[in-house]
Amino acid sequence: MKYGFFPGCTLESAAEELMISTKKVASALGIELIELEGWTCCGASHIQDVDDFLGVAVNARNIALGEKFDAPILTVCNTCTLMLRTAKDRLDHDENLKDKVNEGLQQANLEYRGTSEVTHLLWALIRDYGLENLRKKVKRPLTGLKVANFYGCHIVRPPKIMGFENHMNPQSMEMVAEVLGAESVEFDQRLACCGFHAVFPAEKEVMGMTRINCLSPKAAGADCLVTPCPLCQMQLDMYQPDAQKGCDENITMPILHLPQLIGLALGFEPEELAINRHIMDAIPTLKKTLTFA
Amino acid sequence: MRKITFTIKRFDGNKDWLQRYDLPYENGKTLLWALTKIREEQDPTLNFTSACRHAICGSCAIRVNGNSFLTCKTALDEILDTFKTDDLKCEPLGNFDVVRDLVIDWKPKLEKMKVVKPWIIPKESGSPTTGFKQSEQEFQKIASPTDCILCGICASECTQLAMNQEGYLEPFILNRAYRFAVDSRDGAPEEHIRPVLENDLWKCVHCMQCVSQCPKDINLSAEVAYLRQETMKMGETQNLGARHAYAFHDDVKNKGRLNEMTLPMKTEGVVKTAMKRVPFALRMISKGKINPLHMPKEVEGIAGVRKIYEYAKGVDQP
């Protein structure tokens, strides 16, 4: 299995642990990730607020870089997936737009053809790799670990663009957790927004959301929250101490990236997956139910 | 026999409670059929609103299992299949005051809508006697936003509104501002757009709930992007939201990738960042999450990226 890998900016900076864990997991599963040469930021759901056409053109360029490999493009970030898929959807349904964009791409010696799908690791594991194949690779079943699956908005919404599963009741995260041996808890905020995209202009509201997003899985008895999106992870982990301020209740909730959870089940140690990098230390909680070297 | 259980949130004006009703399953029915059957056969005190039964009047929206639907348009089978359950929890729409049971109060919302002047402020080129000529292209701009039936589903699902009822505008109000701002007959788009800016436009969190649930497929998030672009054209580029968006726009042009170290400074300014973000930065550095010395290099092909930027400047955007 081969994919053109679009890491997204956070994997080179504040979520580098996701780069580390993704590569470890992909290698252990025999999934080849070839990083797209010269990829740029997807615009992170902001660029279209300045220039709509540019938002499409920049991602047409990113997809064109992937089309060179003649393989699907894989991301591990919900928002990158949405931005790339939105551009692809618009280009594939609007010849006029596609022509205009390609006129621009020509100046960079590139062409958008529309031949590569854009997928997310979570979807690829289910649709391409197969959950039974994943089950066979499990060396350390996560038995007894209660996980809260926090999807994040952009892996399910809007359904017209994402469309992998029903956006009102997705099950992919629960299916993966089950294969890894973990127990998924039911909690109110499972499909909530983390607020990351507006953390600067709407800081007060977003901190309030972070509080609720931590308290809800806690009340449901989760040991940790796991998310397929680095932006959700960053919002809920990095800003958790800020969200705790002014809240009488203890909101502490360890936040893991999906590949870290998978990596634990594949037998990696927490440090190999860079779980020690999180602001909210997840390792003591993991040690209560899992055995490490 | 298969039974569907409806647990309905009741409210009598003073207190609320949950009330359970069981209905024998019938295929090919709508949610509105179920509510009507309950009222006709089991409980005449149950209050809900509905009228057209054709997804035109917008009066029958409620929340079922945490998601908002037009009851007349939504097939019961679809709901049962989506949630994989025969237990349905029905509530009034979120982010509205409740009058009784599933009936919500529209009056404060319609009062609030007036702030964006949801009417045409005519250009001098037309008049009530001579009328206006509108091209097909001009009409198409308002065709989709005019589909709004004021059902309230977008407001019910809005994440920002749930946290900020006073400050933020309901997505259907943003849609109204958009609809009149892009109308070729309107001579004062700023009068529709400025109140949106002043009511926390940049606080939309991009959760995509409004777009995903709108029964008329109105692309509300694209409308938010348009409203934001227009405020910047009006010179409103120094607020946190606009500065944040420009930081991304400029970083892609400069290096191709985001510089997370400089992002807070570009958004909030150097002084505010220094005063506010130091504990945050130290926390991040101590865990190895950021390296203050890391500077993104220019990506391979950055010259091409910049050419695309130049090219985009000359493209006519609808």
Account of the protein in words:
By secondary structure, chain A is an alpha/beta fold. Chain A has 13 helices and eight strands. Chain A has helices at 16-29, 47-50, 52-67, 78-93, 95-106, 121-129, 131-137, 172-180, 203-219, 230-238, 240-244, 258-265, 283-289, and strands at 2-5, 32-35, 73-75, 118-120, 146-149, 183-184, 224-227, 255-257. In chain A, strand 1 (2-5), helix 1 and strand 2 form a beta-alpha-beta unit. The longest helix of chain A has 17 residues, at 203-219. By secondary structure, chain B is of the alpha+beta class. Chain B contains 15 helices and seven strands. Chain B has helices at residues 31-41, 76-83, 107-113, 136-143, 153-157, 159-163, 171-181, 189-198, 209-213, 220-233, 240-254, 263-268, 270-276, 278-286, 302-313; strands spanning 3-11, 16-24, 61-64, 67-70, 87-91, 98-100, 103-104. In chain B, strand 6 (98-100) and strand 7 (103-104) form a beta hairpin. In chain B, helix 7 packs antiparallel against helix 8, helix 7 (171-181) packs across helix 10 and helix 8 (189-198) packs across helix 10 (220-233). The longest helix of chain B has 15 residues, at 240-254. Chain B is globular, with a radius of gyration of 24 Å. The N and C termini of chain B lie far apart (56 Å). At the A-B interface, helix 2, helix 3, helix 5 and helix 9 of A face helix 6, helix 9, helix 10, helix 11 and helix 12 of B.
Let me know the number of strands of chain A: 8
- Quaternary state reads heterodimer
**Class by SSE composition of chain B:** alpha+beta
Q: Biggest interface, and residues per chain?
A: A-B, 66 and 73 residues
Largest sheet of chain B: 5 strands, mixed
Radius of gyration of chain B (CA) equals 24 Å
**Percentage beta strand of chain A:** 5-15%
Number of helices of chain B: 15
- Structural classification of chain A: alpha/beta
Q: What is the spatial order of strands in the main beta sheet of chain B?
A: 2-1-5-3-4
Mean pLDDT of chain A: 97
How big a fraction of the residues of chain B is strand?
5-15%
Shape of chain B: globular
Please estimate the helix content of chain B.
Answer: 40-55%
Number of alpha- plus pi-helical segments of chain A: 13
Order of helices and strands of chain B: EEHEEHEEEHHHHHHHHHHHHH
Task: Report the sheet with the most strands of chain A, covering strand number, pairing sense and barrel closure.
Answer: 4 strands, parallel
What is the first-to-last residue Cα distance of chain A?
31 Å
Straight-line N-to-C gap of chain B: 56 Å
* Contiguous uncertain segments of 5+ residues of chain B: none
